[in-house]
Amino acid sequence: QAFLETDSFSDFLRHPKALADHALHSQFKALSDPQGRLIVSQVLRLETLNQTFPELAARIGCPTAQLGTHNISPSRIGWRESFRDPADQRWVRDQYAADFEAFGYPETLEL
Q: Which pLDDT tens digit goes with each residue over 38-58?
């Protein structure tokens, strides 16, 4: 609903409903215990999922498992175009600092 109530990506990022949405909370927080230790043995990145999934599938005994593609929407504006504002980049970096650090993302995003 935050998307429907905002006119820009900047406004969406900071909208109270977006901030309350569990899908937009820290991934590190969701995957770690109260002491800040990861509780999973492996974290796969969406941006490399097609390359890393076959190894995971084989390791858990499902070597023929395949990732499907469903519900693809044509993008009106790519995320890189929406994410050019340095203030938004800083806000995201600060908001998700634990994710950036734990998962080895660079300080600056390559657009």
A: 999 999 998 899 899 999 999
How far from 40 is each of 16, 52, 71, 75, 94, CA to CA, in Å? 30, 16, 28, 33, 24
DSSP the chain: -TTTT-SSHHHHHH-HHHHH-GGGS-HHHHTB-TTS-B-SS----GGGHHHHHHHHHHHTT-TT-----------SS-HHHHT--HHHHHHHHHHTHHHHHHTT--SS---
36: region left, alpha or beta (phi > 0 left; psi from -120 to 50 alpha): left
Enumerate residues 6+ apart whose C-beta is below 8 A from 97.
none
